[in-house]
Amino acid sequence: MNRSLLFKLGAIALLILLLLIPLLMINGIISDRQQMRDGVLMDIARSSSYSQRLTGPVMVVPYRKTVREWKLNEKLNERYEQVSEVRGRLYFLPEQFELDGKVQTELRSRGIYQARLFHADNRISGRFELPAQLGITENFADYRFEPAYLAVGINDIRGIENALKLELGSQRLAFAPGSQVAWLGEGVHVMLPEQDSKKPAPFDFAFDLRLQGTEQLQVVPVGKTSQVKLASNWPHPSFVGNFLPAQREVTAQGFSAHWQTTFFATNLEETLRGCEWDKVCDDFNSRSFGVRFIDPVDQYLKSDRAIKYALLFIALTFAGFFLFEVLKSLAVHPIQYALVGVALAFFYLLLLSLSEHIGFGLAYLLSASACVLLIGFYVCHVLRSIAHGLGFSAGLAALYGLLYGLLSAEDYALLMGSLLLFGLLGTVMVLTRKLDWYGVGKRKVQFDLEAVQ
Transmembrane stretches, by residue range (predicted)? Predict the structure, then answer.
């Protein structure tokens, strides 16, 4: 291989490396715009409500216990009884827990950015069955119980949109702010009617909760048997948490999902015992499930993914130029390579700026069309042939189409990319199978001399 060919390949490689500079700058712009968008979404959530997690209801029974200890008076060598009082709480989870929710989503805009909020109309019901003597096996007479209450943990109480009333048979009891339980965090509570602590009677409960939030809604399945049903008009749910729905249906009009769990799967009863001593109890609160209202068209994520293929895209385009040189004995100057490379880099800047206003799909179509037309017009003159220029433009348009397929099929991106590269390698090998690489430089030099004469 002669020096002229080595020089051309070296110049092409150097141009590719230099084009990394504007590509890195554009990638930085994508990151900055994404951070700005995330900041605006956080501001919208801060002025409305954050993601929501519903925990409870949990029944809380405060008590005061008389503790008797025998002490020794060393001076008199006599024993005496010391009586003290300690405070504590008993926690009980419902025997049955059911939640039936209808969720509607809406968009809130600030400038060119939008945040998706949800409004969940929830019907929460269940049944408590308490053990005899509230499960106390030691001296029951040492306990004095205070009024019991139900506590419900709500991640962001600003999202409560209705006046909460607990339904106990014919009674309607108003909730008060605050869960009164540290490890439940924010929430509400409601005082319960007095009952016989030795033989507590089971009771059914129900209440309606309209809750607003952003991004996701999660539920902690607190019942020994729990059933949660959610239905929404949002067609792009992402089911999150420790349990996937037992049944789900996702259509273009929305989704419906049904979860069903028991204590055997959640182990919440055992975890609750640890919460009596731990004021945080992250393990209890983390055993949740729910749905995330994701936006499938995240222009910043797709732009970031697109620019990761930029180096490969430019290398393939330069390889096409180089094949025209060696197969058609055409001379293409490195400056012409550079101008085409800059046009390819500008595609990503156009894609980012347009996608913020008209959506990613249409922005991709317009940006790719503009770059193909510009490069096609230029290449027709560089290659001195309209047919060659149109052929090059068709190949470039096909590359843009394949790139869009890679961006859309995230799960199959590696497979599609591998097949693409293998196919292009095969094409190059077929086209150059009879090429005399040792004679490439000589033919080009001869071609240049004839052009001068």
Answer: 309-327, 334-352, 358-379, 386-406, 412-432
Q: Which amino acid is at 244?
A: L
Token code pair at residue 383: 């290659």
Looking at the structure, do residues 32 and 59 belong to the same domain, yes or no?
no
Q: What is the rounded distance in angstroms from the CA atom of residue 194 to the CA atom of residue 171?
A: 13
Shared domain check, 125 and 20: no
Check which CATH number belongs to the domain holding 59 and give it. Answer: 2.60.40
In a domain, 271, yes or no: no
Q: Which two tokens stand for residue 133?
A: 């003597």
* Better-predicted residue by pLDDT, 367 or 426: 367
Nearest Cα neighbor of 157 from 176, 138, 131 is 176
Output DSSP code: residue 160.
B
Q: What mean pLDDT, rounded, does the chain reach? A: 83
CA 392 centroid distance within chain? 40
Could you tell me if residue 44 is inside a domain? no
Question: Does the structure show a pLDDT above 70 at 451?
Answer: no
Q: Could you tell me the pTM of the whole model?
A: 0.73
Number of Cβ within 10 Å of residue 73's Cβ equals 9
Task: State phi, psi for 295 to the nearest 5 degrees.
Answer: -100, 115
How many domains does one find in the chain? 2
Largest Cα separation within the chain, whole Å, is 129
Same domain, 234 and 308: no
Contact by Cβ (8 Å): 165, 173? yes
- Token duo for residue 305: 């993914």
pLDDT at residue 124 greater than cutoff 90: yes
What is the token pair recorded at 331?
């001379």
Q: Which domain holds residue 106?
A: 50-265
Tell whether 305 is covered by a domain: yes
Distance CA 130, CA 275 (A): 19
Q: Is the pLDDT of residue 219 over 90?
A: yes
Helix, strand or coil, per DSSP, at residue 306: helix
